Amino acid sequence: MRIDVQTHHMPAPYVKALKERSAYPRFEKRGEQWWALGTAHDQLPMAPKLLELPMKIEEMDACGVDLSLLSINIPGPDLAPDPREADELARISNDGIAAAVAAHPKKLRGVANLGYGDLKAAARELERCLRELHFAALQVFAYVGARRPLDDPAFEPIWAILEERGAPLVLHPGPSPASPIYADHWLGPLVGFLFDESLMTLRLIMSGVMERHPRLKVLLPHAGATLPMLIGRVDSLSQRYRDDKSLALPHPPGHYFARVHTDTVSHSKEALAFALQQMGAGRTMFATDSPWVPIQRHVGIVESLGLPAQEAGQVWSGTAKAFFGL
Q1: Which of these, 176, 180, 198, 283, could form a disulfide with 279 (CB 3.0-4.6 Å)?
Q2: Which of these, 279, 187, 159, lies nearest to 229 by C-alpha position?
Q3: Band of the pLDDT at 45, cuts 50, 70, 90?
Q4: Which of 218, 196, 198, 219 is nearest to 74 (CA)?
Q5: Cβ–Cβ under 8 Å, residues 62 and 288
Q6: Number of folded domains in the chain?
Q7: Does any domain span residue 143?
Q8: Is residue 304 one of the residues assigned to a domain?
Q9: In terms of residue numbers, what domain contains 254?
Q10: Contact 77, 63 (CB under 8 A)
């Protein structure tokens, strides 16, 4: 069995809502191409497979993917500056994902997104997604509204709900304070996104969020971003500066990072092999980031590793079943 834990779809009602907006976030047509505009610096062309669900299902079948966890992509509803609009866009996107799952219940499971306009409303929407829509997790972009880090104390009720429900927090890159720096040469998608999600994982660790929520499940995608290589440095230098109150954790950062899971979206055999060496098959799950990359490319990278049967079974589906409760 193959379970894809990171794949994206923009439901028609959410697309319609974004097309009707003049402020960010919005959709804009340039020639024959629709573009998603998150901010002035965060703009991406929309691939047809992101908009057309039958194309995604067809590609899944062709590549032997049995189940995909479906989430929206950039731009998220949290980018709307008006709190009520942000929360309403979140509801529209979640209902759209739920409709896609209802059309293909054996092939898809939903992943929620929130607007965070009103935190009490966001908490209610998360409960609705988990209890009524039976979503598997919550996806959160690295900076809420392109500016608020995830260790903002206002988000504590959200993490508490996830911990209580056993639903994972799925990190995903998105617009950030660094977006103007990334704007040239497509540096955001090329490398900047990985820095943002690495920093956000460290903020969850260093701020004590993961200490306060010991059962909170966290998925850092993209083969662990930069942290499989850097967590040793983080441990070493944080001990050097341990007299600083901001580093006053009961355990080294690596202790908390050992709870973090990842996926196989690495774009190279060598990078995935290193991530697996550092994190293990018990913390690594197959994913494709479809439709930005053809599914078969990531299937091929995993297959090229020639993993032993037990480890391969964990990566393809076993770890995901345990982590998401599938």
Answers
A1: 283
A2: 279
A3: confident
A4: 196
A5: no
A6: 1
A7: yes
A8: yes
A9: 3-9+51-324
A10: no
Q: Are 200 and 206 in contact (CB under 8 A)?
A: no
Yes or no: say if 36 and 25 are a contact pair by the CB < 8 Å rule.
yes
Phi, psi of 289, deg, nearest 5: 55, 25
Burial of 65: CB neighbours in 10 Å, binned 0-12, 13-18, 19+: buried
| Structural Rg of the chain based on CA atoms | 19
- The amino acid that residue 171 corresponds to is L
Give the CATH number, domain containing residue 145.
3.20.20.140
Cα gap 9→291, rounded to integer Å: 8
pTM recorded for the entire structure: 0.95
CB atoms within 10 A of CB 289: 21
Cα 141 to chain centroid, rounded? 7
Report d(CA 52, CA 57) in Å as an integer.
Answer: 9
Q: 74-102 pLDDT, tens per residue?
A: 999 999 999 999 999 999 999 999 999 99
In 3D space, the residue among 91, 70, 92, 89 whose CA is nearest the CA of residue 80 turns out to be 89
Q: Strand 43-45 to strand 67-71: parallel, antiparallel, or no bridges (unpaired)?
A: unpaired
**Cα 78 to Cα 87: distance, rounded to the nearest angstrom:** 8
Whether the predicted pLDDT of 152 surpasses 80 = yes
